[in-house]
Amino acid sequence: MSSNLARTQAIHTISQRSPMDLGKTDPLSKIWGCDVFNLARMEETLSKNAFKAMKKTFQTGEPLNPATADVVAAAMKEWAMSKGAKFFSHIFYPMTNATAEKHDGFIISSPEGNAITDFSGSLLIKGEPDGSSFPNGSLRMTNAARGYTAWDPTSPAYIMHTANGATLMIPCVFLSWTGEALDKKIPLLRSNAAMNTAAQRVLKLMGETDVATLNSSCGAEQEYFLIDEAFATARPDILLAGRTLFGAPPAKGQQFDDHYFGAIPERVQVFMQDLEDKLYRLGIPAKTHHNEVAPGQFEIAPYFESANVAADHQQLLMTLMKITAKSHGFLCMLHEKPFAGVNGSGKHVNWSVGNATQGNLLDPGNTPEENLHFLAFCGAVIRGVHQFGPLLRAVIASASNDHRLGANEAPPAILSVYLGSQLEQVFQDIKDGKLLKTKQGGQMDLGLSQILKFDRDPGDRNRTSPFAFTGNRFEFRAVGSSQSVSGPLIAMNTMLADSLNWIADKLEAELKGGKDAATATLAVLKVVMEQHGNAVFGGDGYSSDWHKAAVEERGLKNLPTSADALPELLSPEVAGLFERTGVLSPVELHSRFEVYAEQYVNSIDVEAKLMINMATTMIYPAAVTYLSELSATAGSLQELGITLDNAVAKSIAAEANALMAAVGKLSEASAKHDFTSVQDHMRFLADTVRELMNEVRAHADTLETLISDEMWPLPKYSEMLFIK
Ligand code: ADP
Ligand code: MG
């Protein structure tokens, strides 16, 4: 018997809930960074020399000598044990969007039978997990499995508190015995180093003599949905695929735009406070939170940090969001499109590069036309986006982000760069060879005496651009909410490194020809704009006119699905880029393509199977049960001489038949596995399987609008999005 029992029980459970009582929470000054072995902690616990060495490594990435590692390990262990930790773990970042950890006890037993603790420099520096059990894209076979984790001293160790106790977590890189990167951290560190080398070259050619190490920075805005956990347990699709595979649109969605920046529901507020306190303990600078566009959707953004630390913190943030949500009776959904028809979730990756001597090189200041460093770096980004747009598209490609890109409230799958009117004019002037004074934003004066005047920004915002300049940084807006920020950061740092090297080569030639640094820089930027200015676009990125013009007139690539985008990783341009800059060898790059392609195939495979199962065992039975009730009622009424119109029953029967016919086609399609290449397999999934899934869904969603609410087994959109 189909029934709505699971739904009504869920609603009952939720009606009994109240916001968690957090008790009296500690002030920020007491909890900030208290679980982090940061520089302050090292200064307290290390000898002067060891601290100096660690600080240098932390700030410049310079190698640390093994004797110092021993001293650090001992201090780290003492500190961690004083905080209750009995275990330590190397935490690393394999080619998934998740983290991996291998826990070991500090304890060893002595010959006398006593328990002593041990944690030497060598245990800190190196661990040995099995390299073949993680996605490795044929880099490791099961019989040649050795992999290493190695301590990254530039990302601080910390204590993770769980129900299982406290564990010292040590951020690490992960590589194979043959020395290839099996993770996302190694290429991120390499891309940062490549960017630094190239940036040093350009700045020195431009006449700078004192140039400190350059570092990339990242501030990631994380969007997410919260639904009550009780609903999730009644929806196998949410549990296994992280999104709803079925669900008719609710009568009220986001059309009133009344959720964005609205008052945050109390249970959610308490969750946010609890989460933020946990983040503060771990030294993660959570800075803003608010409601997002869709009902049930929210955002959290920490203050920006060095890209490597920000990437580690972002992974930790996602982990803590899920754990904390659970303890508040919520499910935190990081999927890019958990609910069809409402806003999807992204992760805007704000990115800039800078150092201690020249500052933020993407800060134009008040007179960008006079700021040659800024112009050179911004020009390098423009070239990068144009030359490597397909790479930027490929690093954000996933089965789940495909649902979001190009849909409502999400950037398109065509990579262009938005500069804002003032900068667009500056670069147009450079192209035209006549650099003029720029227009300033001026003052905002409302003419209301009680409202103070303030400076207006020189340009408006454009939220339809996938890659936008936002005042002193670029914001990569097409990144998906569940994705690691490392892939996008690697791509941005590497394309910038390559463009800066290209600029340096050209600058060298111009300077040899006798030009002064300023004239030479502008001459090179003129070439940048002539060759790559097509990537600059300030209009509406959502419009169909742009989709047409971008491809037909500007020669930009529109890569709507991952099946189109992922193979771009194998293009000679991309392989050349990574090899030239030393960020990924051809083998490492190829392994990444294999891993991501396999993840795409597996995700759709799982969803198709799940869809077939739910349609057959939950939705079709609900239709049949309701039909049998209708026909029994119609029969009884007929005996009383009353005729019940059979239109509804007929529609249900027709939809139920069509549903099962579509399920049949989907089963057949998803059983097909004889493809000549993974590219062909991805193409088939994108074009055929996804279409059939849409067909199955359409019939199921129509049935939801026809079948008695009492028999509908799955929590509905209106319930999941609005009941908190
Ligand atoms: P908005 O929603 O207006 O884009 P938010 O304040 O939500 O802005 O998020 C902006 C993000 O950009 C924050 O994480 C912020 O710390 C980060 N950010 C600010 N300046 C820089 C910079 N120079 N480099 C990198 N990230 C930055
Ligand atoms: Mg933003």
UniProtKB/TrEMBL annotation:
Residues in GS beta-grasp domain copies: 83-179
Pfam family membership, one: GSIII_N
Coiled coil: none
Cited InterPro entries: Gln-synt_C (IPR040577), Gln_synt_N (IPR008147), Gln_synth/guanido_kin_cat_dom (IPR014746), Gln_synth_cat_dom (IPR008146), Gln_synth_gly_rich_site (IPR027303), GS_Type-3 (IPR052725), GSIII_N (IPR022147)
Top-rank taxon: Bacteria
Domain (GS catalytic): residue spans on this chain: 195-619
Family (UniProt): Belongs to the glutamine synthetase family.
Database matches in PANTHER family: GLUTAMINE SYNTHETASE, TYPE-3 GLUTAMINE SYNTHETASE
Protein name: Glutamine synthetase III
Lineage: Bacteria, Pseudomonadati, Pseudomonadota, Gammaproteobacteria, Thiotrichales
